[in-house]
Specification:
CATH superfamily of the largest domain: Translation initiation factor eif-2b, domain 2
CATH architecture of the largest domain: 3-Layer(aba) Sandwich
Order of helices and strands: HHHEEHHEHEHEEEHEEEHEEEHE
Number of helices: 10
Number of strands: 14
Radius of gyration: 19 Å
Oligomer: single chain
Strand order of the largest sheet: 5-4-3-8-11-13-14
Strand content: 15-25%
Helix content: 25-40%
Shape: globular
CATH topology of the largest domain: Rossmann fold
Number of domains: 2
CATH class of the largest domain: Alpha Beta
Length: about 250
C-alpha cells in the first residue's frame, strides 16, 4: 500500500485530521504530507479546511453536476471558505442546493451544527459526520440539480428560524436582484431566507449582470453577498452606495 493509500485509510478512521497527526501516523515530514495532500485534493477525494483534512465520502456522479463542479471551481472554493467564517459552532444553518453550497459543506465538517438542506449531495456528504445533525427538507426531486422542490419542503422552511441561511443563484444584479428560471425554485429560495437571522448569497461574479424570469429577492433583502474579486470595480462602487447588504469580495487565486 503506497503512502497516498495509507493517508486515505487513516482518513476513513478519523473524521478530521491535521498535518501533524498524519506526520506522526506515517513517520514522514510535514512537507511530504503537504505534497501528498495537494495531490489528493486535486483528485477530489479529500477536502482541506482551516481545521484540517477530511475525506470526501460522497462525490456526485451525475454528468451535469460534475460539469457544474468544474466550472469556476477556484472561485467557488474561495467563496465557500469565506462563507464558513460566518458560521459559529452550534448554529442552525440552511444550505441551498448547488455546487458552491457543496463546497461550503466541505468546510463545515469540523463543527457541531444543525444543517437543513434541499440538496441530496450535501445531505449524504454531511450525514457521515457525527457532530452534524442533518435534515433534508423533503418533497419532489428535481433531476437537474438532484435537490428537493415543492410545497412539502417550503412548508418546513416557513416553520423554522435558522441562525443563518445561504442561497445560491443562476443570475444576480443590483437592478433585478436574485433571479431563477422557474417559479417553483424562486418560491423555495424565498422561503429559505425568509426567517433567517442572517441571509447570505454565494455566487461567483460570472453570474452577475444576468437575469432569469422569476425574481427571488432584491439584494437589500440579504445581510451578506459573497462573490469573487473579479466583480467589476464600477459594480462594486454601485453596491457600496446603493445596497445595504455587506459585499464581501474574496480572492480566487
Amino acid at each position: 500500500m503506497d503512502r497516498l493509500d495509507l493517508i486515505l485509510e487513516y482518513l476513513k478512521q478519523h473524521n478530521l485530521v491535521t498535518v501533524d497527526e498524519l506526520v506522526q501516523a506515517l513517520s514522514v515530514s510535514a512537507a511530504t504530507i503537504r505534497r501528498d495532500l495537494i495531490k489528493l485534493d486535486e483528485t477530489g477525494v479529500i477536502s482541506r479546511t482551516h481545521g484540517g483534512v477530511t475525506l470526501n465520502r460522497f462525490i456526485p456522479v451525475q454528468p451535469t453536476t460534475v460539469e457544474k463542479n468544474q466550472r469556476n471551481l477556484r472561485e467557488k472554493r474561495a467563496i465557500a471558505k469565506a462563507a464558513a467564517r460566518l458560521i459559529e459552532p452550534g448554529n442552525t444553518v440552511l444550505l441551498d442546493a448547488g455546487t458552491t453550497m457543496l463546497e461550503l459543506a466541505r468546510e463545515l465538517t469540523h463543527m457541531p451544527l444543525r444543517v437543513v438542506t434541499a440538496d441530496l449531495h450535501i445531505a449524504l456528504f454531511l450525514c457521515e459526520f457525527k457532530q452534524i445533525e442533518v435534515t433534508i427538507i423533503g418533497g419532489r426531486i428535481d433531476d437537474s440539480s438532484q435537490s428537493c422542490i415543492g410545497e412539502h419542503g417550503r412548508s418546513l422552511l416557513r416553520s423554522i428560524y435558522p441562525d443563518i441561511a445561504f442561497i445560491s443563484c443562476n443570475s444576480w444584479s443590483l437592478s433585478k436582484g436574485i433571479t431563477t428560471p422557474t417559479e417553483e425554485k424562486a418560491g423555495l429560495k424565498r422561503d429559505l431566507i425568509k426567517n433567517a437571522t442572517q441571509s447570505v448569497m454565494l455566487a461567483d461574479s460570472s453570474k452577475y449582470g444576468k437575469w432569469s424570469l422569476f425574481r427571488v429577492a432584491q439584494m437589500d433583502e440579504l445581510t451578506h453577498i459573497i462573490t469573487d474579486n473579479h466583480l467589476p470595480p464600477d459594480v462594486q462602487q454601485q453596491f457600496s452606495h446603493s445596497c445595504s447588504a455587506k459585499l464581501l469580495l474574496v480572492p480566487s487565486n
